[in-house]
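Co-fold these.
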Amino acid sequence: MIPDALINAVRDARHIVIFTGAGVSAESGIPTFRDPLTGLWERFDAASLATPEAFRADPALVWGWYEWRRMKVLQAEPNPAHRAIVELARHVPHLTLVTQNVDDLHERAGSTDVLHLHGSLHQPRCFTCGKPPEEPLGTPDEPEGGRRLQPPQCERCGGHLRPGVVWFGESLPAYQLDAAFAAAKDCDVLISIGTSGFVYPAAEVPNLAWQAGAVVAHVNPLANISRGEREYALAGAAGETLPMLIERAFGRTGS
Ligand code: BV8
Ligand code: ZN
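Predicted complex below.
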């Protein structure tokens, strides 16, 4: 199931990059984007909701969708995959965690210095002047998926608050993207976990690592690989595969 060559590369690595997508939070009960039926994309036209145009056209619809997602995250717990990444960081001289996710489950599992390429559900800001609210948002009302909720008003300019995520057509935060690309070019091993690799420029990260000579592994029930050499597909769920990988590389884990 997990090739010895990959176990040895992980054990001997000086610098490991972990690159995560929605699949790492799937076992916490958070819908992914493209899973049939449960995926957000299936039940909503997410690509048309996750845009500044959609927010301008109907702020209450978009805010309601994100508050529903934020509520699901608040109700969720980190899963063994998130915890395995924290455990791995204890064994590796240098681990860089890059996520496309907008939930805070990595942080709640104990990961630090997480590079969020697509922002966070937990950092709303004013759509007009960019100012974050004075008080953090409380627990959202019980909006069921797709119900409209009027976004709160900015205390400074009266504009609408918006979710602190990167929408389609918006630029990614330059610091996080530059740091992620630099880590990918420097690392010995990159483990991509739970991503379909559709969305750019984030999807460039594993390619940069492979092109720079790193060993690349994809943890995904649908994993398929294209490059053969130095690349591995671990076709399984993250919550089962990652603890196994770490136990094989470093012995019984404490998690
Ligand atoms: C940019 C935040 C330009 C919001 C997200 C045409 C028109 C316009 C733009 C484009 C275009 N063509 C290309 C583009 C660029 C566009 C893009 O890439 N589009 C794609 C769809 C083709 N990108 C952008 O617009 C980016 N910005 O390019 O700016 C620019 C340039 C200069 C100056 C100004 C502007 C911005 C992209 C960011 C969009 N925001 N999220 C929100 O969350 O609502 S993207 C969204 O999809 C998610 O956040 C996530 O980050 C991303 C990828 O999804 P995944 O994480 O991979 O999830 P998915 O469901 O797809 O896959 C889950 C996987 O997990 C599956 O493979 C499944 O098998 C696996 N899995 C399931 N269970 C498990 C599991 N794995 C392991 N264990 C399990 N248990
Ligand atoms: Zn404002």
